[in-house]
C-alpha cells in the first residue's frame, strides 16, 4: 500500500478542525497512489480525499490546487479542493503539505467502451477550453528536456536495440517545436485510472498533479495512447474515432497541430516509455509492486513510427 506517511485517528481528527467539514467518522489508506499518500475520509458533512504530497515540488502545489478550483467552479467534472476556515486549500499534516478535496463518485474503467471513450474526449476538450482562462503557470516537468536527460541516464544501461531506438527517436523529436503549437493547461496524465464513471456517465477527472502548461494537442496524444490502444500495441480504431470526434466537437485542432500530429503521438509514447523504463532500471525503495511494464509503451511508440495515424 502506498501510504508513505502514517496518520493516526487523533492526528486526522485534529487536522480536520481547520475545515468546515463536520466530525471525523472514519478513514482508510488508498493503495493506488505512487507519488503521494492518499486517504479516503468520511465526516459528518461529506466524503473526501486527503492527499499528503511526498515528492512534488511545493512551489507547484498552488498551481495544481488552483487549477482544480478554477475548473470545478466553472462546471468541469473535477474535484473541488476544500478550504479551511481561513480560506486556505494547502496546509500541512505531519510535516507534509496536504490538501483535502471532495471525493467524487464512480470508478475507473479497465476496458472502456465507445461511449466512455467519447466522454473522455469531450471532457478533455472542455478542460482545454476552460483552462485557457486560468492564470496560473507551471512548466511541464516531463517535457523535452526531461526526455533528453532521462534518455542519457538510460543509454548505458539498456541493450543495443533499445539504445538505437531511443537515440533515433530523440533525433526525430528534435524536429518538433512544442512551443510553436497552441498552448494551454493540460492534464498530462489522463489515463484510465484518472477518470471516474458510473456506467457510461463520466463523473469526474482526478489527479491533476502532473498538470502544466504545454501543447494542447500533446494532451490528446497522451490520452489516446492509453485509452485507445490494446495490449498488443495496436490501436482500437473505433475508440480512437469516438474520442477524437468528441474532442473536436469541443475544440477544433489547428493546422499546425494536424501537421505535427504523428510526431506528437510519438513524443507522448516516448515520454511514458522512458518513464517506465527508468523506474524499471532504477527502482526506488517501495516501488517494486508499482513499476509498470515499459514494453507496453515501446510497442505503442513503434506502432506510431511505422504507421501514419488517422488525420485529425
Mind explaining what this structure looks like?
- Strand 2 and strand 3 (46-53) form a beta hairpin.
- It contains nine helices and nine strands.
- 36% of the residues are buried.
- The protein is an alpha+beta fold.
- The model has no long low-confidence stretch (mean pLDDT 94).
- The strands form three sheets. The chain has a five-stranded antiparallel β-sheet, covered by helices on one side. A two-stranded antiparallel sheet has the order 6-9.
What is the H/E string?
A: HEEEHEEHHHEEEEHHHH
Number of self-contained structural domains: 2
Largest sheet: 5 strands, antiparallel
Helix content percent band: 40-55%
Q: Which secondary-structure class do the elements indicate? A: alpha+beta
- Put simply, the count of helices is 9
The CATH superfamily of the largest domain is: Aminoglycoside phosphotransferase (APH), C-terminal lobe
Which term fits the overall shape?
Answer: globular
Proportion of residues in extended strands: 15-25%
CATH topology of the largest domain: Aminoglycoside 3'-phosphotransferase, Chain: A, domain 2
Can you give keywords for this protein?
312 residues, alpha+beta, Phosphorylase Kinase, domain 1, Aminoglycoside 3'-phosphotransferase, Chain: A, domain 2, 2 domains, five-stranded antiparallel β-sheet, two-stranded antiparallel ribbon, threonine biosynthesis, kinase, transferase, Homoserine_kinase_II
Amino acid at each position: 500500500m502506498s501510504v508513505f506517511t502514517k496518520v493516526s485517528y487523533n492526528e486526522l481528527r485534529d487536522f480536520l478542525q481547520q475545515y468546515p467539514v463536520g466530525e471525523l467518522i472514519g478513514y482508510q489508506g488508498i493503495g493506488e497512489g505512487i507519488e503521494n499518500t492518499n486517504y479516503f475520509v468520511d465526516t459528518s458533512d461529506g466524503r473526501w480525499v486527503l492527499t499528503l504530497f511526498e515528492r512534488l515540488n511545493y512551489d507547484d502545489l498552488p498551481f495544481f490546487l488552483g487549477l482544480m478550483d478554477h475548473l470545478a467552479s466553472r462546471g468541469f467534472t473535477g474535484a473541488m479542493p476544500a478550504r479551511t476556515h481561513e480560506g486556505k486549500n494547502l496546509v500541512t499534516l505531519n510535516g507534509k503539505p496536504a490538501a483535502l478535496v471532495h471525493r467524487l463518485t464512480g470508478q475507473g474503467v479497465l476496458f472502456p467502451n465507445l461511449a466512455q471513450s467519447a466522454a473522455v474526449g469531450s471532457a478533455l476538450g472542455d478542460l482545454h477550453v476552460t483552462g485557457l482562462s486560468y492564470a496560473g503557470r507551471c512548466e511541464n516537468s516531463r517535457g523535452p528536456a526531461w526526455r533528453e536527460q532521462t534518455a542519457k541516464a538510460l543509454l548505458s544501461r539498456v541493450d543495443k536495440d533499445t539504445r538505437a531506438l531511443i537515440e533515433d527517436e530523440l533525433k526525430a523529436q528534435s524536429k518538433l517545436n512544442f512551443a510553436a503549437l497552441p498552448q494551454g493547461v493540460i492534464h498530462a496524465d489522463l489515463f484510465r485510472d484518472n477518470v471516474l464513471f458510473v456506467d457510461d456517465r463520466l463523473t469526474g477527472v482526478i489527479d491533476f498533479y502532473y498538470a502544466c502548461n504545454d501543447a494542447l494537442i500533446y494532451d490528446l496524444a497522451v490520452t489516446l495512447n492509453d485509452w485507445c490502444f490494446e495490449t498488443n500495441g495496436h490501436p482500437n480504431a473505433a475508440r480512437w474515432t469516438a474520442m477524437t470526434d468528441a474532442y473536436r466537437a469541443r475544440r477544433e485542432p489547428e493546422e499546425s497541430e494536424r501537421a505535427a500530429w504523428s510526431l506528437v503521438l510519438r513524443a507522448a509514447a516516448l515520454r511514458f516509455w522512458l518513464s517506465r523504463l527508468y523506474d524499471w532500471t532504477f527502482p526506488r525503495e517501495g516501488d517494486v509492486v508499482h513499476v509498470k511494464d515499459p514494453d507496453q509503451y515501446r510497442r505503442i511508440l513503434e506502432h506510431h513510427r511505422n504507421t501514419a495515424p488517422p488525420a485529425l
